[in-house]
Amino acid sequence: DAKTTQPPSMDCAEGRAANLPCNHSTISGNEYVYWYRQIHSQGPQYIIHGLKNNETNEMASLIITEDRKSSTLILPHATLRDTAVYYCIVRVISGGYQKVTFGTGTKLQVIP
Amino acid sequence: DVKVTQSSRYLVKRTGEKVFLECVQDMDHENMFWYRQDPGLGLRLIYFSYDVKMKEKGDIPEGYSVSREKKERFSLILESASTNQTSMYLCASSLTGRNIQYFGAGTRLSVL
Q1: Which residues of chain B does A94 touch, with a Cβ-Cβ cutoff of 8 Å?
Q2: How far, in Å, CA of A81 to CA of A74, rounded?
Q3: Which of B25, B37, B62, B104 has its CA 20 to 30 A from that of A42?
Q4: How many CB atoms within 10 Å of residue B29?
């Protein structure tokens, strides 16, 4: 699996967009980018994933660069409840064993 | 919504005790996982199962065993609990081919 690099922490003002970067320069052509988050004292929660096109769902948007070596998760209007650790993961979609390696992620603090 | 339920949120056990952590999912997922999470180390995979009665070792299986007698239930067993097994334990499940893991709320185990 490709390795990912994320900043250890970020702050964002409440109501503003939170842009969380992730570098995955060794990503392979068949690897997807996944984002999860973990709110304190809870299990990780899936947010979004994509291959090469930008993706949007009710939680967030995912922007993947054309060369696929980096991506950005965007929370358009951050709230205090978005304070969490955000994990960027790259992985193929395939049958069978699906090991997911979580790094240490980015701790996002949303400030009132 | 997918629901992954872990039997206890908090558990305190004594050194040498046999400990059972139970996990149940309600979405007919083939794959189930046990992780532990420690500060600064992220999530580490202990064991996973891709079918009933099937199990595979993850990255840190030593001191643990698992049981999967029914598709919806995956148990983690600490044969003889030790203080270095004090940790947050997270269970997850996923559907083969989708590679999205759904996590339980976690069990915080303290071994005294």
Answers
A1: 97, 99
A2: 15
A3: B62
A4: 22
- Contact check, Cβ <8 Å, B106/A41: yes
- Alpha-carbon distance of B17 to B20, in angstroms, equals 10
Note the pLDDT tens digit of each residue in B85-110. Answer: 999 999 999 988 777 899 999 999 99
pLDDT tens for residues A8-26? Answer: 999 999 999 999 999 999 8
Q: How far is B36 from chain A (nearest CA, A)?
A: 11
d(CA A75, CA A57): 10
| Least Cα separation, residue B76 to chain A (angstroms) | 17
Chain B residues with CB inside 8 Å of A105's CB?
Answer: 42
pLDDT tens figures, A54-100 = 999 999 999 999 999 999 999 999 999 999 999 999 877 655 556 66
Q: Name the residue facing A44 among B40, B99, B103 (closest C-beta).
A: B103
Per DSSP, the residues of A39-105 read -TTS--EEEEEESSS-EE-SS-EEEE-TTSSEEEEEETT--GGG-EEEEEEEEE--SS---------
